[in-house]
């Protein structure tokens, strides 16, 4: 999503507190649900090498983008939430430093845009990571026993595959050292964005407009939750419910994985509950993805 499209999608007036609330919400999600789930996942698969085709394909793609790592890409992304928490502190500091209590897209600067883009990209990264863990857990469990088949639609699978490279690219920025992130924010131009002269600014300022090139590798409408209107409130509601359902699904699948290890199989009742949660997730994800496609067509 280009910077022009990104700024076009903003509501006419934004409040700094909304951005700060977004950092708090993301911190809470990572601390209270994502990290505990990954800890449980690591306990279940302690000492077990990932052997599924899904894990191997991801590691191959990861090594192509992120080179020189001693651990597998799968292992590294499972470790990434703690680094995100450190970088969210940097984002929070930058929001307080750069933004007035109320601001408008008409007077926004490139360094402010970069901070918002990064925050929105972290939210997207965290959403992708949840789905990644669900897929990984289902595929690895299937190799160890009679696990529930992952009841995903074709669109859900395609979304995960189509966005894999963007996820891996974002991993590098999500897990960078806080000092390096701060340096990038400092080197981003403080010139004021103007859609009419954007191409000229690109030539004059070069990479200082978007040092992380988030607008280059992220095709998703990252700013969609900053728009206004009833439909966007509904969109945020769908996202919250999808997150809740996916966390529940992960908890159930971890329970199933433990049952398989202990009893060589899981109960039909548990498998039925897993199927129901995945049906609800599929409906919510369809609504979210459809809305994003419509949004992209309009900006």
TL;DR?
The protein is mostly helical. The protein is 72% helix and 1% strand. It has 12 helices and 2 strands.
Sketch the topology as an H/E string, one letter per element: HEHHHEHHHHHHHH
| Low-confidence runs | none
Strand line-up across the major sheet: 1-2
- Largest pleated sheet: 2 strands, antiparallel
Question: Hey, roughly how much beta strand do the residues contain?
Answer: under 5%
Specify the number of helices: 12
Instruction: Report the helical percentage.
Output: over 70%
Please state the average pLDDT score.
85
Distance between the termini: 10 Å
Structural class: mainly alpha
Using only C-alpha atoms, the radius of gyration works out to 20 Å
Oligomer: single chain
Number of strands: 2
What general outline do the C-alpha atoms trace? elongated
């Amino acid at each position: 999503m280009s910077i022009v499209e990104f700024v076009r999608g903003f509501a006419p007036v934004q409040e700094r507190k909304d951005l700060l609330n977004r950092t708090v919400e993301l911190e809470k999600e990572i601390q209270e649900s994502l990290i505990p789930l990954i800890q449980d996942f690591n306990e279940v698969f302690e000492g077990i090498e990932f052997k599924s085709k899904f894990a191997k394909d991801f590691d191959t793609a990861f090594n192509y983008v992120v080179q020189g790592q001693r651990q597998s890409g799968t292992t590294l992304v499972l470790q990434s939430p703690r680094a995100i928490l450190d970088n969210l502190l940097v984002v929070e500091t930058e929001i307080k430093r750069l933004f007035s209590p109320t601001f408008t897209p008409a007077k926004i600067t490139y360094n402010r845009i970069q901070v918002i883009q990064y925050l929105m990209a972290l939210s997207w990264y965290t959403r992708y990571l949840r789905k990644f863990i669900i897929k990984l857990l289902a595929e690895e469990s299937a190799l160890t026993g009679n696990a529930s088949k992952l009841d995903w639609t074709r669109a859900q699978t395609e979304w995960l595959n189509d966005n894999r490279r963007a996820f891996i690219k974002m991993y590098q920025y999500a897990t960078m050292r806080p000092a390096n992130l701060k340096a990038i924010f400092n080197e981003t131009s403080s010139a004021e964005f103007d859609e009419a002269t954007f191409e000229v600014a690109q030539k004059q300022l070069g990479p200082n407009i978007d040092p992380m090139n988030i607008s280059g590798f992220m095709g998703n409408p990252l700013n969609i939750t900053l728009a206004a209107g009833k439909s966007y409130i509904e969109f945020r509601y769908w996202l919250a419910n999808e997150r809740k359902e996916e966390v529940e699904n992960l908890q159930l699948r971890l329970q199933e994985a433990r049952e398989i290890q202990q009893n060589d199989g899981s109960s039909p009742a548990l498998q039925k509950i897993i199927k129901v949660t995945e049906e609800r997730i599929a409906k919510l994800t369809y609504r979210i993805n459809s809305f994003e496609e419509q949004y992209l067509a309009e900006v």
